From TrEMBL:
<keyword id="KW-0472">Membrane</keyword>
<keyword id="KW-0732">Signal</keyword>
<feature type="transmembrane region" description="Helical">
    <location>
        <begin position="429"/>
        <end position="446"/>
    </location>
</feature>
<keyword id="KW-0812">Transmembrane</keyword>
<keyword id="KW-1133">Transmembrane helix</keyword>
<feature type="transmembrane region" description="Helical">
    <location>
        <begin position="108"/>
        <end position="127"/>
    </location>
</feature>
<feature type="transmembrane region" description="Helical">
    <location>
        <begin position="458"/>
        <end position="477"/>
    </location>
</feature>
<feature type="transmembrane region" description="Helical">
    <location>
        <begin position="234"/>
        <end position="257"/>
    </location>
</feature>
<feature type="signal peptide">
    <location>
        <begin position="1"/>
        <end position="17"/>
    </location>
</feature>
<feature type="transmembrane region" description="Helical">
    <location>
        <begin position="44"/>
        <end position="64"/>
    </location>
</feature>
<protein>
    <submittedName>
        <fullName>Uncharacterized protein</fullName>
    </submittedName>
</protein>
<feature type="transmembrane region" description="Helical">
    <location>
        <begin position="203"/>
        <end position="227"/>
    </location>
</feature>
<dbReference type="GO" id="GO:0016020">
    <property type="term" value="C:membrane"/>
</dbReference>
<dbReference type="InterPro" id="IPR040283">
    <property type="entry name" value="DDB_G0292058-like"/>
</dbReference>
């Protein structure tokens, strides 16, 4: 037990020192990034192995306890102070009597172990709820943003195709749509992976607690009822140790996941490190992108719309600005994207003083002013449509969806999930120690879970009374449920 407690509570110097299994020191950053922001995934994996190793060793020790103790028991070497006949030793015939304090104390210890375990399990399930909630928040944030990319791409494509001055059809923008679908598919895959992992993690947590706790509870109930037949407490103790194997493996998994998420949180919360994460996700600055075709299509269409508006404003043989009754045109006859909207704002047409958009609707049909205004107003409307999708395209090219995902992902990951993982690992360690102690109590209880009428004091009084009357009969200790394997608790000879 000393080994279990020692390993469970203080065997992680390599975690604090950030050393791999082979003793190599690494940085404290996610994926062991160095000062050049280069990742070292292999070394980081070896470090995580060092995090899990102590708990895996405990699992092996708990597993080995079963055959070692069972063999010793069969040989008669692990029978406590009341040896049984065995293959190797334990030939003694004088059994050990237990005092009322020892009998009552063993039962109280078993009950205290159950109570402490119940408190520990309550804390663990509270932490598990935090993990589940944090996982859901993180998954929704991550996959929601990744799926939103496809929606943005389709919106941009459909908008561009609907504009008059777009020279390309939807097929020309298929690389962008394919990339959006790829990102959407990755989001769904990540969601399924995380959901499946969380399902198995929660299942392992439940089994790691429920199985050994149930055996310990059954042993305690049998002990309180003074039932010791068929070496039931020894069997239950071995089952508790077997359940602890699953528990320590679960501790190893939760410790590794906690370490990874904690490192990732530190990386996410540091503005200087977001760039590195973007590169890992394939969003390096100035890198080529399948979304470039959207920008090219938008810029070409926008330039065509400006050219059409400017042509009818100043370059057409019957340009609007050269028509009589038109005022407000800039003194310079040049027209470009930088000043085309100044024409729209300042130009007034006819006695009514219509602006270009009003003239397109209200000027006399067939007039040069109306014909030119219709073309110009339409081109300016299309110009604005191109402007409306420009920001969306910019977000795609700059991988802003990654930044949004990271920001929202970190909210669920770092504030809720990480603390829950740490809480689970800590409570599981405490539960592992309690269950191991409980298993030892059950082993001791196989001899000590007796009625107080079979205590040393009670039997001593009976023997004394018998001796005074000249009786020389062996006194058989009766359990609450009958004689235990025909063994005598005391001989008066």
């Amino acid at each position: 037990m000393g080994v279990v407690v020692c390993l469970a509570l203080g065997v992680l110097p390599s975690v604090a020192a950030r050393q791999t299994l082979d003793g190599k020191s690494i940085s404290s950053r996610f994926l062991a990034m160095d000062e050049k922001d280069e990742t070292h995934a292999g070394d980081y994996a070896m470090y995580l192995a060092a995090v899990a190793l102590p708990f895996l060793i405990l699992a092996v020790l708990e597993c080995l306890t079963i055959p070692v103790f069972s063999c010793g028991r069969c040989c008669g070497c692990c029978g406590g102070r009341k040896p049984r006949p065995g293959l190797c030793c334990g030939r003694g015939k004088v059994p050990k009597l237990y005092s009322k304090l020892e009998i009552t104390g063993s039962k109280v210890m078993a009950m205290l172990a159950i109570v402490a375990l119940a408190v520990t399990m309550t804390l663990a399930y509270t932490a598990n709820k935090e993990v589940s909630d944090g996982t859901k928040e993180a998954v929704v944030a991550l996959t929601g943003n990744m799926r939103g990319v496809l929606n943005d791409v389709v919106y941009v494509r459909d908008t561009l195709v609907s504009i008059t001055y777009t020279s390309s059809d939807g097929d020309a923008m298929s690389p962008a749509v394919d990339e959006g679908r790829n990102i959407d598919s990755q989001g769904r895959d990540v969601e399924k992976l995380i959901d499946d992992f969380d399902l198995y993690r929660a299942l392992a947590l439940n089994l790691s607690f429920a199985i050994p706790a149930a055996f310990l509870l059954l042993g305690t109930i049998c002990g309180i009822c003074n039932f010791r037949k068929c070496s039931i407490h020894l069997v239950l103790a071995m089952l508790v140790f077997f359940g602890c194997v699953v528990l320590w493996i679960s501790v190893a998994v939760h410790s590794v996941v906690f370490r990874v998420t904690d490192d990732l949180c530190v990386e996410i919360e540091s503005p200087n490190n977001v760039k590195s994460l973007r590169e890992i996700l394939g969003c390096a600055d100035n890198s080529s992108s399948s979304f470039d075709v959207l920008r090219e299509t938008q810029e070409k269409g926008q330039a065509a719309a400006v050219a059409a508006a400017c042509y009818d404003l100043v370059d057409h043989p019957q340009a609007l600005c050269t028509s009589p009754g038109v005022s407000g045109c800039p003194s310079s006859t040049s027209c470009s994207a930088s000043n085309v909207f100044i024409f729209e704002r300042d130009v007034r047409i006819g006695v009514a003083g219509y602006n270009i958009s009003q003239c397109a609707e209200l000027c006399a049909d067939g007039s040069n002013e109306k014909e030119r205004s219709v073309v110009i107003a339409g081109a300016l409307r299309d110009h604005r449509k191109y402007e409306s999708v420009s920001a969306v395209i910019g977000n795609l090219l700059q991988c802003n969806y990654v930044d949004r995902a990271i920001a929202q992902f970190s909210a669920g990951l770092c504030s809720t999930l990480t603390s829950g993982l740490q809480g689970i690992a800590q409570t599981q360690i405490a539960a592992g120690v309690l269950l191991s102690l409980g298993g030892v109590v059950l082993i001791l209880g196989q001899k000590r879970f007796l009625p107080t009428s079979s205590s040393k004091e009670a039997l001593g009084a009976v023997v004394a009374a018998g001796a005074a009357g000249g009786a020389m009969t062996a006194i058989v200790a009766k359990d609450g449920w009958g004689k235990d394997d025909g063994e005598y608790s005391y001989y008066d000879d």
